[in-house]
Specification:
This protein is an alpha/beta fold. The chain has twelve helices and 13 strands.
């Protein structure tokens, strides 16, 4: 489980006191709305808090307000994707152990919705956020940078290039490469990849793994092997119908898919077209959602440690909220990269 760390300075109550020219106890009195502080001093402290973007840590706010509810916001991309349900369960288990409640909401793959949701949760003063962000070249990610500016703890479960943040993710390149290499070693040469949505860095990482598997063989990678499909059941179904009807004279013998939902949709399309899995086409999914092994043809897939991802993200966030010493925020940024595993079932077969 590789981890990378870098230094991040969080504004403390001592910084506010020093800036305002008062004691830590005076700052605490202002935060606790005690009437023992002169109005002029109170104004000076509040100005310092605003100037420095100070936000009390979860531990500090609970000392000031012992009855304060402790909450974590979880922002996902698609509420109907079982992948996120497992992440939620992992996060909730850890959160419960530490006295936190997890509030889950979905952007439904809409940039404006994600921006609005993150702003809303931050304004509602949740203790921290776990976010699976939408990414695209022209995407407005200002809400994520605003979280950093306001010292609001958050953890990403997908990398954002150029943003120094705590991350829990999986090595998608290695896992996609392993799945593709499995097909190549089984004698498949006409392989395509049903890629995910363009708003996900995971899409590009899984394409890169697919490409690297070919680079290690004498087979030639072509750009037309990448077929953008999407992330949902209907995406795999509709793209599967269109692609295999168009290429009925020379169809691929195998398809790797962005996720299990796309793979399941594709399998339905192939069944409708009278194309047998795995006799004529082998299918590999990604994520290993619970239903994958219970399908009429159990799905070969890449098992992502989803529950562990959620648990690790919650652990990392709570450390960030409370601080290792219980007296403030973190002084490091961590990147936890977990490993996925190919699970071979009935939807694939070797050709040799």
């Amino acid at each position: 489980m590789p981890s990378e760390a870098s230094t991040q300075k969080r504004v403390t109550i001592s910084d506010v006191a020093r800036y305002a020219g008062v004691s830590n106890a005076t700052v605490s009195a202002v935060l606790n709305n005690k009437g023992t502080v002169k109005d002029s001093t109170r104004r000076r402290v509040l100005e310092a808090i605003e100037k420095l973007n100070y936000r009390p840590s979860g531990a500090a706010r609970r000392r000031l307000q012992p009855t304060l509810h402790r909450t974590i916001g979880l922002v996902v991309k698609e509420v109907d994707n079982p992948y996120f349900a497992d992440i939620f369960l992992g996060a909730r288990a850890v959160a419960n152990q530490h006295g936190y409640t997890v509030l889950i909401t979905s952007s439904e793959s809409d940039f404006t919705s994600e921006h609005r949701i993150v702003d809303l949760l931050a304004d509602k003063d949740v203790d921290g956020l776990i976010i699976n962000p939408l990414l695209e070249e022209q995407a407005d990610l200002s809400h994520l940078f605003e979280l950093k500016r306001r010292n609001i703890p958050f953890v990403l479960i997908e990398n954002v290039l150029g943003l120094q943040a705590n991350i829990v993710d999986v090595d998608n390149v290695a896992a996609s490469k392993e799945a593709t290499r499995y097909l190549i070693e089984g004698g498949h040469e006409r392989i395509i990849h049903f890629a995910g949505p363009r708003y996900s860095l995971h899409t590009e990482e899984r394409i890169e793994g697919f490409r690297r598997a070919f680079s290690e063989t004498n087979l030639i990678f072509r750009e037309d092997m990448i077929v953008y499909a999407g992330a949902r059941l209907k995406d795999g179904y509709e793209k599967g119908l269109a692609y295999f009807q168009e290429h009925r004279d020379n169809p691929p013998t195998a398809v790797t898919c962005y996720n299990d939902l796309v793979a399941i949709g594709l399998m339905r399309a192939l069944h409708q077209l009278g194309i047998k899995v795995p006799d004529q086409v082998s299918i590999i999914g990604y994520d290993d959602i619970a239903i994958a092994e219970y399908l009429p043809i159990p799905l070969t897939t890449v098992r992502v440690p989803k529950t562990e991802m959620g648990a690790k993200a919650a652990e990392l966030l709570i450390r960030q909220i409370e601080g290792a010493d219980g007296r403030g925020g973190p002084d490091t940024i961590e990147r936890i990269i977990l490993q996925a595993q190919l699970i071979v079932r009935g939807s694939t077969r070797p050709l040799k």
